[in-house]
Structures are given as structure tokens and as C-alpha cells.
Amino acid sequence: MTWPALERLLAIVLVGWTMGLGVSPAAADALPPTVAAVIDYQRILRDSRAARAIRDQVESRRRLYQEEIAKEEQRLHEVDKDLAAQRNLLAPDAFDSKRQTFERDVAAVQRMAQERRRQLDQVAAVALGEVRSAMIEVVGELARSRGFNLVLPSSGLLLFSPEIDLTEEVLRRLDQQLPNIKVPDKVD
Questions:
Q1: DSSP H or E stretch at residue 178
Q2: CA distance 79 to 72
Q3: Which of 36, 79, 106, 175 could form a disulfide with 150 if both were Cys (CB 3.0 to 4.6 A apart)?
């Protein structure tokens, strides 16, 4: 389940709970009282050390890939210029053959660029998944130690008391638990 979908589900559950939708008075008596907290999920994924390390590594790889692709594009540009100069010197069949080879090379470079972007997106998603898992573990530890039985993303709430905002503590603990993360080279 994606995080936005989870946020919506949690918001629906909270609204349903507060409005008493579908909960009989007898069932409501059987439920424990809700002790809620909130976190700024987006801020944690933006400001944690591990998330920053992921961004740095991904950007570094992106620059390397862009340099590689730029070299290939320059090579193709030179081949195209040479091919244009040979147009009137070569027999039509020979020129067509060279043109088709050139077009295959262009398509191969385009596929390589798309594959690099796809790989980068995949490895970044895997690394961010590790950050999310560690964050959920930290939030679970805080919930158990402080007695929260409901933790909601602050982005889905209209109003809440700053006293129930766990973001700073989650960031601090997450940075201690996962100060850095290595983005994998590839996803299996």
C-alpha cells in the first residue's frame, strides 16, 4: 500500500471513529481510548540523514549517467555529420545501410538513457523503502513507550496540538539508528 493511500485510509478511520460511523455504543465501550500522535512524514523523508545521503548518491549517479549519455550523443553527432558528408559520395544502397546502422545506434543510446533513468528510480525507491521501514520501527518504539495507539501523518490533518507531534523525536532517533544508507547498484 502506498503512503498516500495509507494516509487516506488512516484519515477515513479517524473520521469514522470521531463521527461514530458504524460503531454501536456497546462496541465503542469495548474499544480502548484513542491516544494519538502525528508525524510530518514528508519532512522526515526530506530531512533525515539517510534520505539526504540517498539524494546525494542518486544525484552523483545521475551526473555520471548524464556525462556518459552526453559523450554518446556527441559521438552520434559526429557520425551524423560524417554520414551527411558521405551522402553524395556513396552509392544509395551503401548510404542507406550506414543510415540504418546510425539509426540503430541512436535508438540504442535512447534505450540506454531510459534504462539508466529506470535503474536510478528503482534503486532510489529501494533505499527510501529502507528509510521508511526504519522510520516505522522508530515510530512503533515511540508508540509503545509512550502509549500511543494511533499515529497519523500531519499532512492529512486539519488541526492538531504541537504537543502530539513526534516529528523531531522521530528524526533524531532515525538519524541515530540509520545515519547513512548505501543506495544499491541495481535492483534484482
A1: none
A2: 10
A3: 36
